[in-house]
Amino acid sequence: MADYNQNPFASTHSLDANPFDDPAPTQDKTARQRDLEQRERDLQRREQELNQRAEHIRKHGRNNWPPFFPLIFHSIREEIPEASRPLINRLYQLWLVLLATLIINMIACIFFLVAGSSDGGKDLGGSIGYLIIIAPLSFLLWYRPIYNGYMKEQALYYYIFFFFCGFHLLYSIYMVIGIPSTGSAGLIQTIQMYASGHWAAGILGTVATVGWSVQGLGLAYYYRQIWSHHNAAGHTVDKAKAELASHGAKAYFTRG
């Protein structure tokens, strides 16, 4: 009977709420807001990067290498054809291994001197000379030519690479041997350090010897691969001579 006493016109919904009020924020709106904020941060970051790049170009042109004092433009992604990028990346990595090995070789020679090696002074002097001379010359005389060779596909670059990289392979064998007083912390010197109980010097010599071996064997492997590519592309000495006569030697140290 209680049901007959209820007001049939009574609403079960409250009329206190204003139907024209903005709806309460939903989870979707919060997610959209976060997305907009993230996009805004990304735009600010990109704008900052573009400003930094513009300032770099204003000061140094397009040059970006070495990073601490840009002298040349070096970008495997932008300048090397896609099919050849893995090879040039590996060669660049081997050059970095060479650079690290030269530094470790010098540190090992310092330890040889401290350990009382009779030729420690000569070894240290030689190792410093190698770091100063071999590091930049190896980049300019065999890495940069093959970089340009794959970028421009011109014969002369390949012959420059074959000539100087061949000498570098012989130099690597020489450094692996480790003849005393030559500035090499190679095999002979390392064995002598272990034999005399100088373990720290021996370990550094081992690392240097492994470094010389890795970059030498890696270069020998890619040397053969590049030789095959050079033959398949039809590069000849006559073609290299014609390019040299046409462009001049200066062109082979520039881009374009």
Automatic annotation (TrEMBL):
Residues 1-46 are annotated as: Disordered. Residues 1-15 have a biased composition (Polar residues). Its main location: membrane. One of its GO terms (cellular component) is trans-Golgi network membrane. Signal peptide: none annotated. Residues 29-46 have a biased composition (Basic and acidic residues). It is found in: Membrane. Keywords: Membrane, Transmembrane, Transmembrane helix. It is a multi-pass membrane protein. The chain crosses the membrane at residues 94-115, 127-144, 156-179, 199-223. One of its GO terms (biological process) is protein transport. This is Scamp-domain-containing protein. It comes from Pisolithus microcarpus 441.
